[in-house]
Amino acid sequence: MDMIDPFGRSISYLRVSVTDRCDFRCTYCMAEDMAFLPKKDLLSLEEIDRLCTVFIEKGVKKLRLTGGEPLVRKNIMYLVRQLSRHLDSGALEELTLTTNGSQLSRFARELADCGVKRINVSLDTLDADKFHAITRWGNLAKVMEGIDAAQAAGLHIKLNAVALKGFNDLEIPEMLRWANGRGMDLTVIETMPMGEIDGDRTDQYLPLSLLRANLERQFTLTDIPFKTGGPARYVQVAETGGRLGFITPMTHNFCESCNRVRLTCTGTLYMCLGQNDDADLRAPLRASEGNELLSDAIDEAIGRKPKGHDFVIDRRTNRPSVSRHMSVTGG
Ligand code: SAM
Ligand code: SF4
């Protein structure tokens, strides 16, 4: 019983933000002084497991935990272990997460043990001072330790870097060589106008078409059909033997192949990252012990999945297109 939206897209990918909290304050993602949700509004890990299980029964094959920082949610490995039963049964094809890497040295082995095979680690620079500047609170050495531990545990890592004009654009070649040299793909992402931040986004926005043109002065990039189920378009890099991905929500609209929905830690379902329409799943979840109400609410929500987003970085108003922060839906 697959979930098919009004535009014929099959919804097989659920991203779950397990917390809106984080141990970093990346400048493009959060304001320094963030107000987080009161703990009482959060779904319990048991409730998240129940929700995910219903989605899996309804055809979700790939599940990604994100946040905020998923690995700072208390007892998170309980949820990972619970969800791993769906890998064992074959109902779920992939269980994965997106992390800032700060806690990976603690959890890498257990994640691998639960059947997690690949993870995304967000890393915007290899320079310790710049890392501290962009994350406000982060420590690069700790993240490097986490990456080492994850690779030692056999996890495949994809690095995600947000491309920021004047910050890391000149460093991307070095990051590419470093990542590919360690057997990791690198994906660069355009900044999206989500949530109030302290700075000006128009100053940071770097169209990836420009970045690609610059990279092509030193690298031979060949478009390849490689897909990981996400919106990245990949190129093979002749010089490194590795892959580079581009996620271009601003310059290229990839909505036509969108297969995903996003669940927040309070049980709100967002059918599109770039739109405000949502559905409350917490009320039907808590209204009865059976899953019928929940299943109906999910069907109703999927029936409202919009055709696409309309992000704009508007120089005149400098207001975010979507007021919620990325840490609410996890990207
Ligand atoms: N804390 C984890 C991490 O950083 O990987 C998971 C959540 S974080 C919100 C997920 C991804 O969204 C990260 O790769 C981050 O760089 C990216 N991100 C955050 N705010 C963004 C924005 N405004 N535009 C584009 N990407 C953003
Ligand atoms: Fe935290 Fe990730 Fe947002 Fe950085 S991008 S503040 S690590 S949630």
UniProtKB/TrEMBL annotation:
Chain residues that bind [4Fe-4S] cluster 1:
22, 26, 29
Recorded superkingdom: Bacteria
State the CDD domains in the record. Radical_SAM (cd01335), Twitch_MoaA (cd21117)
The residues covered by the Radical SAM core domain are 6-231
User: What is its cofactor?
Assistant: [4Fe-4S] cluster
- Top-tier EC class: lyase
Q: Does the keyword Metal-binding apply?
A: yes
Which reaction(s) does the protein catalyse, per the Swiss-Prot or TrEMBL entry?
GTP + AH2 + S-adenosyl-L-methionine = (8S)-3',8-cyclo-7,8-dihydroguanosine 5'-triphosphate + 5'-deoxyadenosine + L-methionine + A + H(+)
| Entry EC number(s) | 4.1.99.22
Instruction: Cite the binding residues for [4Fe-4S] cluster 2.
Output: 255, 258, 272
Which residues bind GTP per the record? 15, 64, 98, 158, 260-262
The text of the family note is: Belongs to the radical SAM superfamily. MoaA family.
User: What task does this protein carry out?
Assistant: Catalyzes the cyclization of GTP to (8S)-3',8-cyclo-7,8-dihydroguanosine 5'-triphosphate.
Which protein, by its recorded name, is this? Answer: GTP 3',8-cyclase
Which gene holds the coding sequence for this protein?
A: moaA
